[in-house]
Design brief:
heterodimer; A: 141 residues; mainly alpha; 3 helical TM bundles of succinate and fumarate reductases; 5 helices; elongated; B: 135 residues
């Protein structure tokens, strides 16, 4: 079906900036977290279904694939959470709007806060990963 | 034909753009996406630590943890917000990238049924564990 609306130039002509990385990763992590919702549902149905169902879920969670899923889920959650908080602040017109958009003489301030989002979410992710590894190896964390 | 579709005739480009105008449901979608996002901040942070606390527990201990009234309540709230927020997000992704009309509509219908069934099944599972604890 032909849609005669104007389209924007191809993505490749733009120089990559942090907000473009954030935008792409927000969608990617959103997709991962949607898949995670299915695993979340499986876990609770497994728990409700009885010991055998739970054992299957626990074995999956402890397997190599399961651990990759859980560690990826932690990163996806914390990135989407931190980036989502920046989105919410932008929705309140904080750090976004006429001043941030139109002053061409300097970089927009949301580039700086974008790096803060990437930094904070990365630190939190590594922190939770370390705590989880300690717990998986039998520590008290 | 000129370079841009809006300039292909003597009509004002804005006039043509307006014919493709808003569906008038965008603000509702926008607001619910942010409402569920705010609710998901404390809920997902709590769940992160709740899930970590279940690591290497035996089955009875897992049921006891999920069946605690406050935990069951939080899990149900999380389920509703998670599926609602996810549905709104996937809705936008489908709208942006799927350009074959029949496929787009099919995916949108599947998404709505899927989100509803997922949320309902999860809620029933939590309630079943909670009721079993009460007896």
């Amino acid at each position: 079906m032909h849609n005669p609306r104007p389209i924007s130039p191809h993505l490749g002509i733009y120089r990559w900036r942090i907000n473009m990385v954030q935008s792409s990763l927000h969608r990617l992590t959103g997709l991962l977290l949607s898949a995670g919702a299915v695993v979340f549902t499986w876990g609770l149905i497994a728990a409700a279904s009885g010991p055998h169902g739970w054992q299957l879920f626990a074995e999956f969670s402890g397997s190599a694939i399961g651990l990759v899923v859980w560690f990826a889920w932690i990163w996806a959650l914390l990135f989407h959470l931190c980036n989502g908080i920046q989105h919410l602040l932008h929705s309140l017109a904080w750090d976004y709007g006429q001043q941030a958009m139109r002053d061409r003489t300097k970089n927009p301030s949301y580039w700086t806060t974008g790096w803060v989002v990437v930094g904070v979410s990365t630190v939190l992710t590594v922190l939770v990963w370390v705590l989880l590894v300690i717990r998986l190896t039998g520590g008290a964390a | 034909m000129s370079e841009f579709p809006g300039q292909s005739s003597v009509r004002e480009p804005l006039k043509i753009a307006r014919n493709w105008g808003a569906s008038h449901t965008g603000a509702h979608h926008w607001w619910l996406q942010r409402l569920t996002a705010v609710a998901l901040i404390p809920l997902t942070l709590w769940f992160l630590f709740f899930a970590a606390s279940l690591v290497q527990l035996d089955y009875a201990a897992v049921l006891a943890a999920i069946g605690q009234s406050l935990h069951a309540f939080a899990l149900i709230l999380l389920t509703v917000c998670l599926y609602w927020h996810g549905m709104l997000g996937l809705d936008v992704i489908i709208g942006d990238y799927v350009h074959t009309r029949w496929l787009e509509v099919t995916l949108q219908i599947a998404l709505r049924f899927g989100a509803f069934l997922g949320a309902l099944a999860t809620t029933l599972a939590v309630l079943a564990i909670w009721f079993a604890r009460l007896h």
